[in-house]
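pinned: reference chain
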Amino acid sequence: MTQITLTPTKSYATKANAELAIAKYVPIDVLEGQTWFIMMGEDGRFFPVFIGMAAIHAGIFHRFNVVA
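pinned: its structure tokens
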């Protein structure tokens, strides 16, 4: 069994701030095809995590965490 621990590239004080960052940096036409969630780190701060190859192909990994 392998456990993966995510280290956020950038974290935000609130979930709302993380969602605003997504809206700011990911165009709406790209965001529509993505699967993502907001995760809380051990320090209580929030960060978005995108899932799948679509996020990699869209270049989202340059700004946010992506798992595929």
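why pinned: The longest helix spans residues 15-25. The chain has a mean pLDDT of 94.
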